[in-house]
């Protein structure tokens, strides 16, 4: 007795499946359609070559990408606003900034309050440290975004701190620069801008910033390095002092004159680029050698009248 397997072939006796009948197709007819493929009707999605789904039009894809990007940007902006609001609440008031300046000056035997910040030093400082100082709300949003991107990508981009942020660092975060400290300095910088005028910020900064050689404050540095009070600073002298605030020990003109000269060249270049000096004036400032600038070094200290006394 012949037995058949499940596909019609010879198989074991226990599998008694009968073979499927062979049906002759009409001449010229193609293969019968597969019963599990719906070629027409509701719910059918046509496919392209090799069964792939047809691609969306380029315009629709662009709109979808734009919509998703906008959602991400809005979400990040809302998170940023919430985080900044939390920082504003968590950070202290800056109403005591002048008291903190006075306390630091007393601790460093510096005169408080110092003499008014002269125009030449103010312009030199702003040109090299914070070119948007007179228009920004305490922070440079472009620089903040650049630094934040650096932290996210792991590059840790330095720089970008405004004079407000630098003052907050000097007064409230003990000179520290960790990520949490810099975030706190951003909030404090905004508070300083809301509480004090531009001239007051410059005055407090000039009173506490360190210039090397144990010179705290602009008055001590001007008398100590050049033997002249701040009001008598020349353009090259003012540019040299402004260039020292980022590296007072490395850029000390008494011990590292080449470094001090390089910083002076940078500051004078910024003054020319921002239109505070003409190119001819910049060249004239750089024509004065460092040795001539510091000829009066050590010959004057801040006197009772805030001038320089022998």
Describe the structure.
The protein is mainly α. 49% of the residues lie in helices and 1% in strands. Strand 1 and strand 2 (308-309) form a beta hairpin. The protein starts with 57 loop residues before the first helix and ends with a strand. The model is unreliable at 1-13 (pLDDT under 50).
List its salient traits.
single chain, 310 residues, mainly alpha, Penicillin binding protein transpeptidase fold, two-stranded antiparallel sheet, 12 helices, disordered N terminus
In short:
Helices cover 49% and strands 1% of the residues. The protein has 310 residues and is mainly alpha-helical. The protein has a domain at 84-297: Penicillin binding protein transpeptidase fold, CATH 1.10.3810.10.
The helix content, as a percent range, equals 40-55%
CATH topology of the domain at 84-297: Penicillin binding protein transpeptidase fold
What is the distance, rounded to the nearest whole angstrom, between the alpha carbons of the first and last residues? 131 Å
The whole-number mean of residue pLDDT values reads: 80
Shape: globular
- Multimeric status of the protein: single chain
SS content category? mainly alpha
CATH superfamily of the domain at 84-297: Biosynthetic peptidoglycan transglycosylase-like
User: Taking Cα atoms only, what radius of gyration do you get, to the nearest Å?
Assistant: 37 Å
Strand content: under 5%
Question: Which CATH architecture of the domain at 84-297 is right?
Answer: Orthogonal Bundle
CATH level 1 name of the domain at 84-297? Mainly Alpha
């Amino acid at each position: 007795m012949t037995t058949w397997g499940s596909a019609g072939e010879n198989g074991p006796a226990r599998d008694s499946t009968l073979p499927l009948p062979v049906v002759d197709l009409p001449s010229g007819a193609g293969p019968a359609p597969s019963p599990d493929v719906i070629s027409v009707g509701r719910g059918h999605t046509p496919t392209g070559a090799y069964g792939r789904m047809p691609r969306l039009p380029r315009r629709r894809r662009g709109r979808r990408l734009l919509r998703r990007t906008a959602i991400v940007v809005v979400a990040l902006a809302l998170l940023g606003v919430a985080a900044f609001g939390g920082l504003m609440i968590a950070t202290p008031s800056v109403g005591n900034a002048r008291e903190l300046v006075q306390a630091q000056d007393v601790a460093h035997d510096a005169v408080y309050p110092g003499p008014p910040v002269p125009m030449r030093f103010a312009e030199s400082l702003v040109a090299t440290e914070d070119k948007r100082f007179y228009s920004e709300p305490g922070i440079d949003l472009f620089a903040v975004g650049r630094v934040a991107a650096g932290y996210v990508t792991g590059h840790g981009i330095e720089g970008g701190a405004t004079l407000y942020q630098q003052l907050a660092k000097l007064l409230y975060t003990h000179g520290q620069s960790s990520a949490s400290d810099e975030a706190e300095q951003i909030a404090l910088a905004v508070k300083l801008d809301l509480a004090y005028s531009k001239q007051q910020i410059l005055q407090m900064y000039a009173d506490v910033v360190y210039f090397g050689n144990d010179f705290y404050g602009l008055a001590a540095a001007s008398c100590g390095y050049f033997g002249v009070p701040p009001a008598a600073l020349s353009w090259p002298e003012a540019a040299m002092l402004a260039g020292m605030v980022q590296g007072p020990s490395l850029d000390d003109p008494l011990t590292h004159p080449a470094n001090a000269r390089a910083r002076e060249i940078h500051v004078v270049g910024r003054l020319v680029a921002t239109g505070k000096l003409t190119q001819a004036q910049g060249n004239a400032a750089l024509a004065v050698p460092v040795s001539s600038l510091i000829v009066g070094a050590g010959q004057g200290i801040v006197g009772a009248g805030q001038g320089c006394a022998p």
